Amino acid sequence: MTTILPVTELRERLSDVLEQVKAGTEPVFITRHGRAQAVLLGVDSYDRLMERLSQVSSVDWYALSQASLARVWDHPDEDVYSWEDGEPL
Questions:
Q1: pLDDT attached to residue 85
Q2: How is domain 3-41 classified at the CATH fold level?
Q3: 28-62 burial by CB neighbour count: b if 16+ within 10 A, else e?
Q4: Which candidate, 18, 47, 22, places its Cα nearest to that of 30?
């Protein structure tokens, strides 16, 4: 279940909220003036998120490189740009 807390309530219940995020997998959304300002995650949830992000990024980089190669093979007359300087090779 998603928890949404105003910052004023978070101040009053910080210890309990920290125990909640530590024990669970659900984030706590912190609001100010009715708008989301931050998300509080337990360390384990954060580590899992970062691991998944790094895996997705690797897959995305692989897909990008394959798409770039396909572009070169399919359109050999077009300029090909290097990654580092953005200049045609």
A1: 46
A2: YefM-like fold (3.40.1620)
A3: bebbeeeeeeeebbbeebeeeeeeeeeeeeeeeee
A4: 18
∠ CA(31), CA(49), CA(35), 5° rounding? 10
Angstrom distance (rounded) from CA 7 to CA 37? 9
Pairing of strands 28-32, 35-40: antiparallel
For residues 18, 24, 25, 26, the Cα torsion angle rounded to the nearest 10 degrees is -60
Distance CA 64, CA 72 (A): 12
Local mean pLDDT, 10-residue blocks, the chain (89 residues): 89 94 88 89 90 74 70 53 45
3-state secondary structure of 29: strand
Residue ranges per domain, the chain? 3-41, 42-75
Give the pLDDT of residue 89. 42
pTM: 0.59
